[in-house]
């Protein structure tokens, strides 16, 4: 897809993000595609149907990426965020994912679900969006009158030295196994993983009979893939040559006569697909800037696309209804959850979508770590909430140990509370 001007090419990128996000919002609302709900169903009811829908989205996106990369139709080596970085930030992925998992449990849903709920009339989720976006924004943007960010204050000094630098290449499975044959290795490993996922997903009779779960996983996986493809293949024709949006931005002074239409930053022009924590931070930054046009990005258009897609389905299905906090405790829990999602999602480099689907489709090692951290954080929080409800007088130590036993992370001999 080659365009004659940067403005035209960028417009196609932004409106493509909106259109694809609109589909996510509509389908997620229609099918109740919810990653936190998937963990909740597993932990509380032993129902893996929605978790299989999540895995189906991963499998579809992963299959598409490895095949298109092998055919030379797509490259996700240089992306925003940088999934295949030359470092494995495993501590940030794990701790950030864990914090995000706790946060999404407190806040009744992940970043995408927050946007879907807003479209359905949930004002609580609008507050979550503002709080999440603000904390995520100041994780990477200095506080006013300061050069300090939340990340530099709380994390940089002790997590940065723990990152594993890779002198030989990038941090995806293909590059780690064979830098010279990374594309082929990704294809083999990716399709093998997709095959295993497909066997697990469709062996369930209950899942096979659920049109909504199949539809949700299939469509969302395809939308993730479509965003990768579109953002990777937009070109600008200038001086007889084709430039990607990032390369055009880097050569702006040579290729453009003035600064008009130049984005504030070049990184958000890189190849990308859907993630929702950083885009919420971008949306907060866009608002604080007084709606500066140069800040508009793929992520901001994605935020509004999901909300409006969900709103469209809520109106069509007549399910739109206003919801507000039940009491102060409800508000407090959502606030804490949003804060943890903003901090954790930024630290982990993504959310249940950004790392759990989009990142895994690149076979980035950090994405698998973050995915595990998210599921663990959410599952452990749900178990602890359950046992604290059953045993109000029990100590947090007893609740924690029992919950870890329930999740089979500790031997049963350490159980302190009996299940009822």
Structure description:
The protein has one domain. Helices cover 64% and strands 3% of the residues. The radius of gyration is 21 Å and the shape is globular. The model has no long low-confidence stretch (mean pLDDT 94). The longest helix is centred in the N-terminal third of the chain and has 26 residues, at 6-31. It has 420 residues and is mainly alpha-helical. It contains 20 helices and five strands. Helix 19 (365-390) packs across helix 20 (396-406). The protein has helices spanning 6-31, 35-45, 49-70, 90-106, 111-119, 123-140, 150-154, 156-159, 173-177, 182-202, 205-208, 211-232, 245-250, 252-255, 277-288, 298-316, 328-348, 354-359, 365-390, 396-406, and strands at 2-3, 87-88, 164-165, 235-238, 241-244. A three-stranded mixed sheet has the order 1-4-5.
Which descriptors would you attach to this protein?
420 residues, mainly alpha, 3-stranded mixed β-sheet, two-stranded antiparallel ribbon, 20 helices, 64% helix, globular
Gist?
The protein is mainly alpha-helical and 420 residues long. Helices cover 64% and strands 3% of the residues.
Q: Which helices and strands occur, and which strands form pairs?
A:
Layout: E1 2-3, H1 6-31, H2 35-45, H3 49-70, E2 87-88, H4 90-106, H5 111-119, H6 123-140, H7 150-154, H8 156-159, E3 164-165, H9 173-177, H10 182-202, H11 205-208, H12 211-232, E4 235-238, E5 241-244, H13 245-250, H14 252-255, H15 277-288, H16 298-316, H17 328-348, H18 354-359, H19 365-390, H20 396-406
Parallel strand pairs: 1-4
Antiparallel strand pairs: 2-3, 4-5
């Amino acid at each position: 897809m080659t365009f004659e001007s940067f403005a035209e090419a960028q417009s196609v990128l932004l409106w493509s993000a909106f259109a694809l996000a609109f589909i996510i919002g509509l389908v997620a609302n229609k099918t109740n595609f919810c990653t936190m709900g998937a963990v909740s169903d597993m932990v509380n009811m032993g129902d893996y149907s929605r978790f299989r829908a999540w895995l189906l989205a991963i499998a579809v996106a992963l299959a598409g990426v490895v095949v298109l990369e092998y055919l030379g139709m797509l490259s996700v080596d240089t992306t925003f965020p940088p999934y295949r970085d030359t470092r494995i930030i495993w501590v940030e992925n794990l701790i950030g994912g864990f914090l995000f998992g706790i946060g999404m449990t407190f806040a009744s849903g992940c970043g995408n679900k927050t946007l879907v709920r807003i479209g359905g009339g949930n004002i609580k989720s609008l507050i979550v969006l503002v709080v999440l976006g603000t904390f995520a924004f100041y994780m990477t943007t200095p506080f006013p009158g300061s050069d300090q960010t939340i990340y530099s204050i709380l994390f940089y000094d002790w997590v940065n030295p723990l990152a594993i630098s890779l002198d030989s290449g990038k941090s995806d499975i293909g590059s780690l196994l064979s830098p010279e044959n990374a594309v082929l290795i990704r294809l083999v490993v990716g399709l093998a993983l997709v095959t295993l996922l497909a066997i697990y997903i469709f062996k369930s009779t209950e899942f096979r009979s659920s049109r909504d779960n199949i539809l949700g996983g299939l469509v969302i996986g395809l939308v993730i893939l479509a965003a990768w493809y579109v953002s990777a293949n937009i070109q600008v024709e200038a001086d007889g040559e084709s430039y990607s949006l990032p390369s055009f931005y880097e050569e702006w002074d040579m290729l453009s006569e003035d600064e008009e239409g130049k984005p504030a930053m070049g990184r958000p022009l890189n190849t990308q697909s859907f993630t929702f924590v950083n885009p919420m931070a971008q949306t907060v930054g866009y608002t604080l800037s007084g709606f500066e046009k140069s800040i508009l990005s793929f992520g901001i258009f994605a935020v509004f696309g999901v909300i409006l897609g969900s709103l469209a389905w809520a109106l069509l299905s007549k399910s739109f209804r206003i919801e507000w906090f039940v009491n102060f405790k409800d508000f407090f829990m959502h606030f804490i959850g949003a804060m943890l999602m903003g901090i954790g999602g930024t630290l982990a480099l993504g959310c249940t979508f950004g790392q759990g689907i989009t990142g895994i489709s690149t076979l980035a090692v950090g994405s698998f770590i973050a995915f595990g951290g998210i599921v663990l954080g959410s599952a452990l929080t749900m178990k602890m909430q359950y046992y604290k409800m059953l045993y109000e007088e029990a100590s947090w130590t007893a609740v924690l140990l029992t919950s870890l036993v329930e999740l089979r992370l500790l031997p049963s001999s350490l159980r302190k509370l009996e299940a009822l």
